[in-house]
Please model this.
Amino acid sequence: MPVESLRPKFLLIDEDDRILGQCLDAEGLFVEATDEDESVTIELLGCLPSQRMRDYLTGSKRYRQRNPLDVGGLRMLDLAGEPLADFWVGELFDWRPSAIDPQRVDVVAGWGWDSPLASSRHVWEHWLTARPDRADLWAGYTGADREEWLTIVRLQNRWRTRQPDRLPGRTYDLNGSHVTDKAGFYLAVGEAINGPGGYFGCNLDALDDCLRGGFGARTPFTLIWRDSQIARESLATPVEGADEPSTYYDVILSIFQDHDAAVVSR
Model:
């Protein structure tokens, strides 16, 4: 296959969001969960570096000290070449000419604290292959897999095509039949407001922020919450720090009420 036809899966970017290099693949992207404070690395394969990155890699130690690369992160691209998520990347430890093409390099870099877990690979691969095209595709996942789906929803929201907030007075329909945990609520309300894969908060503070505007809906609006009893029972855990004894479900309702969003339970 001609090198020109190879599709980059990752972009190395600097702190100003400029592209340092395009990479064809990565080894060590998904890491095992560990309590050890140990250094983790990732190997970026078949990278086509910018001139600035090439000069840094081939320069002397003195040159690199005077001209730091300031790597900002590693941007994961989906099958369509669209940005999906950014991850922290540390120091570039080592590099070598790539066997794929002499103009490309393989780079070893620091990796770690926000990298996806090996146990969640199948969730990420779902998104990498195709973005959600209908609601509730997350409903078959449970526990940590739902949390990871919500993480992807949060991260990809940065690049989601933004339309102006819909005018006040709208009615939104929340399917509560799968809201059996906190992640399920945020996934369901995100899709109720913004469609498949949509974001509208990932915790109580973020929900409060979204209701202030800028995330697809402008209050006042009405939210029809169908099968709300499932959430009432599933989100019955007490919330610490509330003004009075309240469950997670009660706090959600109070946040909507504070922002003049009417919730109609069905």
Summary: The chain has a mean pLDDT of 93. The chain is about 30% helix and 25% strand. Residues 143-156 form the longest helix (14 residues). The helical segments are 51-58, 61-66, 121-129, 143-156, 182-194, 204-210, 228-234, 248-258.
